[in-house]
Amino acid sequence: MTLPSITTAVVYHSGYGHTKRLAEAVAEGAAASLIAIDAEGNIPESGWETLNAADAIIFGSPTYMGGPSWQFKKFADTSSKPWFEDKLKDKIFGGFTNSASINGDKLNTLQYFVLLAGQHGGLWVSLAIKPANVKASKRDDLNRMGSYIAPMAQSNADAAPDEMSQGDLETARLYGVRVEEIASRFAAPPTA
After folding, report:
1. pTM, two decimal places
2. Please, what is the angle between helix 18-30 and helix 166-187, to 10°?
3. In the chain, which residue ranges form alpha helices assigned H by DSSP?
4. Judging by beta carbons within 10 Å of its beta carbon (0-12, 13-18, 19+), is residue 135 exposed, middle or buried?
5. pLDDT value at position 190?
6. 39 Cβ partners below 8 Å, 6+ apart?
7. CB count in 10 Å sphere of residue 162
8. Distance between CA atoms of 145 and 151, rounded to whole angstroms?
9. Rounded to 5°, angle at Cα 98 from 13 and 143
10. R_g (Cα) of the chain, nearest Å
């Protein structure tokens, strides 16, 4: 059975380019369009149109001070307008985050995304990649952060975006593939 074609959008804020690289990796896996939240916390009107039409939406933000960036939070607050009209209801949702510290309280950012998706009446897609948590594990292994909710990445504060862990980027790409597959299943016509 061929799964139906769906549309996916990745809406993200990136402060220094690391989260942008993750967004690009997720978008590659999901064949998604990218919507960047600008430095003032805004997206263009066409971005809202893309989100309203999408079957799946994937959130992305760096984790700053234990949560998403204020720019992402402004976007989230602005999403109350489509919330009133149920424009994002029953969509498939996912998310990803990055911080300089190994922990960096990234879990709080992902939980924020899950709650935002829930407020919109959406369905969340988990990561489903087992963690790299044995002595032989390396920096470039898949899911080295040991997340289950969605991808987490770690980028040293003094590292350029092109120095990011290839494992983190591949984890993000594979998550995009998973979101696309799950969204396709939900979009499939009912069987007789």
Report:
1. 0.94
2. 40
3. 18-30, 45-53, 70-78, 80-84, 106-119, 166-187
4. exposed
5. 60
6. 71
7. 8
8. 8
9. 135
10. 16
Under CATH, which architecture does the 8-187 domain have?
3-Layer(aba) Sandwich (3.40)
Domain ranges of the chain: 8-187
Q: How confident is the model at residue 188 (pLDDT cuts 50, 70, 90)?
A: low
CB 14 within 8 A of CB 64: no
Q: Which residues of 78-102 are buried (b: 16+ CB within 10 A; e: fewer)?
A: ebeeebeeeebeebbbbbbbbbbee
Whole-angstrom distance, CA of residue 116 vs CA of residue 82:
12
In whole angstroms, what is the distance from residue 46 CA to residue 71 CA?
A: 18
pLDDT by residue (tens digit) across 74-117?
A: 999 999 999 999 999 999 999 999 999 988 899 999 999 999 99
Cβ atoms of 118 and 127 within 8 Å: the answer is no
Query: Strands 33-36, 8-12: parallel, antiparallel or unpaired by DSSP?
Result: parallel
Amino acid at 32: A
- Take residue 37 and report the two structure tokens written for it: 């939240």
Q: Which of 149, 135, 126, 139 is nearest to 170 (CA)?
A: 139
Alpha-carbon distance of 170 to 175, in angstroms, equals 8
Token pair in block for residue 152: 């987490």
